[in-house]
Amino acid sequence: MQKVKRETHKRRTARNMLTTVRIPKQFEPIFEKAQEYVRKYFEGKKEDPSKGTIEIFGERYILIRAASLSVEFFETVTRLYHREGKEEALNIARQLLFDIAHAIGVNDAKNFHKKMNLNDPIEKLSAGPVHFSYSGWAFVDIFPESSPSPDENYYLIYDHPYSFESAAWLQSGKKSDFPVCIMNAGYSSGWCEESFGITLVASEIMCQAKGDNACRFIMAPPSKIEEHIASYIRKEPKLAEKITRYEIPGFFKRKEMEAELRDSEQRFRTIFDNAMVGMLLIDLQNKKFSDANKMICQMLGYGLEEIKNLGVMDIYPEIVRPHITAEFEKLTREEITPVEDLPIKRKDGTIFYAVVNFSTVTLSGKDYFIGLFRDITKRRQAEQLVERLNHQKELILNTAVEGIFGLDVQGNHTFVNPSAAQMLGFTVDSLIGKHSHSLWHHTKADGSPYPLEDCPIYATCKDGKVHHGTDEVFWRKDGISFPVEYASTPILEGGKISGAVVTFRDISDRKRMEEELKRLATTDSLTQAYNRAKFQEVIKREIERTKRHGRPLSISMFDIDRFKQVNDTYGHDVGDYVLKTLSQIAKKNMRGIDYLIRWGGEEFIIIALDTDVRGAETLSEKIRKAIEHYEFEEVKHITVSFGVTQFRQDDTEDSFIKRVDDALYHAKEKGRNRVEVID
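RESULT FIELD:
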């Protein structure tokens, strides 16, 4: 100790007035002024044991025994965390002490500056070491090479010759193998940080409690501290063997970990919010919703804050609540199964149906249930519609479950949910780290290659834009493709693109349903011939084609002779039977490229492609004879009359149809059961 004092005395000569701190000579006037501020602050100390109060400058203070916040604190924490091991227990103690002292230093400085009306950063900082001495933490001895500038170049090297922490260890007869002046480092860096408005950290590199001849500290911004320590060791090689163990306080390391955690939570939030399924996070303790994504808010008709005030049972009709209770009991036994066709109650009281998957998840050390909701109301309605329109088709029972991918900027899988893997025929593990485009998006629906540079999903990883696909295919492991709709959303970290989230669904069932509805929309339900809507579609296209290429196009119009008598005599059921049978006979005698149209009532039109009027006449005569000789049940001698004509280059659609109608009229006039042609 005496040696340290002699060395310090050689470095500088302090004035008699400056008794609370040692500093380089050029700073003495500033610190003398600071000493006066602090002296005035502390000279108003009042103690009243009858009330158990100590008051300084209008603020209440407390006295704490030094050893309780140092050697004994370490012993207590070591006992409490003995299962984690001694080193981890010491780390916990160091972290707690530094954080507490740093926060106290910041707030003591803030309060002192306000009380003493200090505004200049240098005056604010200079009061710190003096306040340190008056409050009993330690005496501060600042080295001349210090450069306390209010920027990234801030550098302070100093000793605490009478640190309360190292004194407590030495007084207890204990010796440490690590620097113990944690609170001194935290408090001093907190005061200086508040004074200069920059983030600072202090590290004790030598400590009397571990046998060194000084308690020496270096203070700097977190990004510079290790660089300054290494530089000091290079300049003082004789001290290198003593500076063998020092700590960069965990306060700042934890900030870095918190930043990483925020980035991770941002990725999770992007996936959570943009998922094409509804998601609810359920608190296991109170069975209330802790969080919800955009999709479930839309499904339920609630805002996010409204959902957070709801319990699980609030979104289910009374009749299914016992079932939900049973499902939650299964979850506690880790029996996870999807719940099909579950009725869900919206805010307005209406009901929609969903497939719900429940599972357990742990977030920040707390267990939750997470519910995934897929609205199948439209699917149910579509299935009912198909059932009403076409009883020959089986109901579409299942639609694809939405898949979710996470991709990095190269397009490799970082996350794959089970539904996505199942739809593609892979396992989740076999997809992680593999390139997405080359596995399931490599080829277009027509079989042509899909270049990576043209892929909208991969583009998201480069341009940071949301891309949608509504008419593309993905490819399964077995080489079979299926139609999908997807959305590719960028993941942004620190303003940079770090990847993309891809949500998709298999729309095979919907595509098939659309084709079926299209067929029903253009087909006569009784005769299964095409209807007038189909005629308009075909005739416009074929007229344009024959005008462009000059290929022949003919039509035949026919109806049943005296069909009213059939209905009047035998009834409409028999009439319907005759119409359906006549349609079947006509189709059997037509070519596959021709179209049979039910024009209305008992009238039909045949569109004969690439056929001149003679060919259409021959076809019409063939059908007429087949009907004439067909033996209908309950009805005798059904005949039909035909009118036939060919498209002319100056024809319009209306003139074309009128001419064939005139031809049919002539056939009726000439006695029926015949084919009349107008060239």
